[in-house]
Amino acid sequence: MKKAYIGIDKKLARWGWIFITPSLLFFSLFSFYPILNAAYTSFFRKNILSLKPPTFTGLKNYIYLLKSPDFWNSIRATFVFTLGTFIPLVVFSLLLAVMILLVNKKSQKYLQLAYYAPAVLSSVVAAVIWLSIFNPRGLGNQWLNFFMNTPGIDHQWLANSFMVQFSTILVYFWKYIGYFVVIFIAGLSAIPGSLYEAARIDGADNWQSFWRITFPLLQPTVVLVSVMSMLQCLKTFSTQYLFVQSGSPQAPINVITLNIYNTGIRDHQIGRSSAMSIILFLIMLFFTWFQFKASKADSVSY
Amino acid sequence: MKKTLIVLLSLLALGLPVFATGVQEETGPVTITFWTHEDPNRTALEDRYISEFEASHPDVTINRVTNSSSKMPELLLTAFAANEGPHIFNTQIEDGYAYIANGRVAPVNPEAVGFQSTEALTESYVDGVLNAVSEDGQVYGLPLELTNWAPYLNKRIFRDAGLDPEKDIPKTWEDMVAVSQRMVLREGEIITRRGFDFRYPYYLVSMVPMVEQLGGQLVSDDGKTAIVGDQAWLKFLQFMADWGPNGLNLGSPTYQNARKLFNADNNDMGMAMSGLYQAGRIRADNPEFYDSGDWMVIPYPQFKDAVKEVASAYYGHFYMVNGQKSEREQKIAWEFIAYMLSHSEEYLTEVGLVQPTKQLMASETYANIPYADVFAADMAKGNIVYYAENSAKIQELIKEAVEGVMLSGIAPEKALASLKVKAQEVLDQE
């Protein structure tokens, strides 16, 4: 029998499949399966502690959620947090990355390390650090009162509805800015220096170079950072959870993930919380698709 | 091929009985996992009980795991949801009741805990104590502690504010406001010393009784209506709004836990709400303060125009046994629980926990515990905390209402309207 000829492309493709199979399996087991399982569970009334079989309720969980003021408040809280965090994160991490690249090499390393340091902390540790800062007798009031010359004012970082939302945004911004700065620095370093030299010869100043060369060529990185930071913000949990545990009012910061947790764990209603997580998943999917579509990230070439 | 397969299957069928051993009682080493909440004083005791029990039961290993009491409910729930719960656990009855309602825990084996029958076991406890863990004539848990709260008072801070701890102790909530206003110290709006502050996350235990004093109820007697008595609830919510940072600014849930600050005696907490066990914790955290005699316990205050005398609700931490474990493991688990609970006097003297057996409550040991009389008198005026499958959710709704009026400037009427609707919805879903 004659052996079928296999081209080099196909051989390479086979090796490719072999290499990615473990990660595909891992991804399927820990990401796809839970999503599918949650989608399935969302059609049932299921008590997490009950040994009885769950009752099929069709779309009732979704209908309940869409009529629930609490759920819509969670949507509001999630979007306030996401918009309030991810836009400043993208803007300031880009600015900081550009500024870091303007200083000398030694300072660059120090600044990168300083900005990146909070990113290595777990979200829980970050929230605990900031809880002590935001305590009425903590550094938050002391610093703000010193700079604003308002001795003795309690700015109610954890109590006032507006301030508690701002506080969660501040914690997240502090924690993740360094991470995105590093990504932007990698993106900026990939832009060929010859483009800037040519622009300088043509008489362009730094401002023009940034808007005409850096920013357009950095578009794929901007999209990457936007998508990553937006997804991070949409699934924020631990900061809000710990703040509520420490006495903050829940409603202003009752983001969807916190609502999922409370519904599933505290209220034992795992079917309803699964429906919530599927809605969150669809929201995340839509905005990721929308950002890629709107930005045309793959149209950049040097 | 087919013939060979038939022959092989026949041989296998004939050979199977050779390996059959029949029903045998399980034997051999067994490890019992025991999850409980942190308490340094209790850990020392229970570690000793474990060593003693293991010495008398050579096949048994007890693996005691501690977690903070606030983390226990979710850790237990996730473990049980995965059918991997521990053999023994304890949690407050508000959280523990769901395990009974969902058939997750095993009934007490009376013989394993040293009684002839369930009736004899029930008879050994103070009347009604086991009601919260009883269903259909079976008992599903034994109390590690039955606890109510009362205010602990720092006499030195009291005197520092020009008050006399013998004459001026706050008997009413109105007195509590007046006394706290005398004791509070602030730098501008920021409180540096609180007179008294509430124990915030535990609204069912410490705040529902305030509503009951005014004639309100959490749930009607027939169990069908939530949040009964609008005027009582409104007065209570207004009281909390006045207490908070936008009112008289006497305290807030965002300040550090009052009960823990109290032990330090750092001139920043005049009074804090806690149970009898707090005395043991003061002794462990700050022996100098404990020995100084500069602290005391006063009865739970009443509103001046209270229509009913009600003190703090009492809650139980009940030891329960996972019903999904084998019968042998369940039996050993109950034997071990019984061994621990046979030291109720030591639990009381060393940890301040009351295991409400008739024998202990009538003992001299109990009578001689400082301030045990205050707690006992208050307990007689209180009810057991609201426990049901939905109690955590109901507590969350009260939290939302109280913190809404205290922190977010929501009007009591609006907070009450929202609380009524949401609590009723939860009740109707049961």
TrEMBL record, chain A:
Keyword Cell wall biogenesis/degradation: no
InterPro entries assigned to the protein according to its UniProt record, in alphabetical order: MetI-like (IPR000515), MetI-like_sf (IPR035906), UgpAE/MalFG_permease (IPR050809)
GO biological process: transmembrane transport
Residue ranges of domain ABC transmembrane type-1 in the record: 75-291
Keywords for the protein's UniProt record, in alphabetical order: Cell membrane, Membrane, Transmembrane, Transmembrane helix, Transport
Residues spanning the membrane: 12-36, 79-103, 115-135, 179-198, 210-231, 275-292
Membrane topology label: Multi-pass membrane protein
Record's keyword annotation contains rRNA-binding: no
Annotated Gene Ontology cellular component terms: plasma membrane
Subcellular location: Cell membrane
Pfam family, one: BPD_transp_1
PANTHER family named in the record: BLL4140 PROTEIN
Similarity annotation: Belongs to the binding-protein-dependent transport system permease family.
Name the UniProt record assigns to this protein: Sugar ABC transporter permease
Automatic annotation (TrEMBL), chain B:
Gene3D superfamilies given in the database record: Periplasmic binding protein-like II (3.40.190.10)
Signal peptide interval: 1-20
The keyword Protein biosynthesis is assigned to this record: no
Pfam family, one: SBP_bac_8
Sorted UniProt keywords: Signal
GO cellular component, one term: periplasmic space
InterPro entries given in the database record: Bact_solute-bd_prot1, SBP
Signal among keywords: yes
Subcellular location: Periplasm
Family statement: Belongs to the bacterial solute-binding protein 1 family.
Protein name: Extracellular solute-binding protein
Lineage: Bacteria, Pseudomonadati, Spirochaetota, Spirochaetia, Spirochaetales
